[in-house]
Design a protein that fits this description.
Rossmann fold, two-stranded parallel ribbon, 10 helices, 13% strand
Length: 308
Amino acid sequence: MMTQARRGVVIGAAGALGRSLVRFLVERHQKVLGLDRDVAPIPGIRFDRCDITTARFAEIVERDDVVYHLAAFVHRLPRTAEEVREVHEVNHHATVRLAQACLAAGATLVFVSTVAVSADSEYGKSKAAAEDDLRRLGREGLSFSIVRFPLLYGPHGHGNMERMLTAIRTGRYWPVGDPATPKSCLFLDDAARALTLASQRGLGGTFVAAPDPVTTLGEIHAAAYAAAGRRLPGVTVPRGLATRAARALQAGLGLVGRSTRLPDQVETLTTPAGFDGAPFARATGFSPEVGLEEGMRRTARWLEEHGA
């Protein structure tokens, strides 16, 4: 297990998962260095500005560090050739440079990946390429673990779950998709704890950290409506109808020079995405501590308190 003598370096510390991880480490009296391109001072840690595309990782990483690499180009679609290049530079090439620095220093790297590595998207391709290179460097002696996460949600989050909760709270959402659709999701605090378990020396490999049993879209909707203090409608909008309506809206907005990610959001929300977290649980003893209902309540409360 990780000891107090080992410093935790959190790259992407200003993000939602980064904040949860930093808080978890600080509560356990771990020395922490937070790095992010956005400065967001967090009590109890040293926090430095860092652009991972230009960072000199060899000057940052020290022997026996545990480096948690969370930073990524995510939550937005690349629409230009330059943005596609940025996806691969951030998610793949910068990760390789960081891994090489960890190998040279004798540090352990915990890489946050995604269950979307098999998706036909620039994001999925870039994460898959990074994973391949980490496994290659592992054969050369790199101490590493790759943790793939399903849908994450919680305070400071900016993903589909947080947008859905906000829309429910303001009366702008109706349940879509088959309620029986499997959808793995994990609260951010549990994801942070999973990363610290993955930092154990010698763990290595590629794992999915996900709850068991897999939740369903219907359960997510029920928990979200309850957390928002609203009654769950008895009828859901079929996925096909919701997708066509979203695309029609997208086309209409395009005529006036505006855009929307609604079709992508509908696709992400309603596509079956259940994942087996049992291998990771067996390897680390991981078991989520925050259930869906409690996680939704905490997220909804944070959104309301912060006017999100």
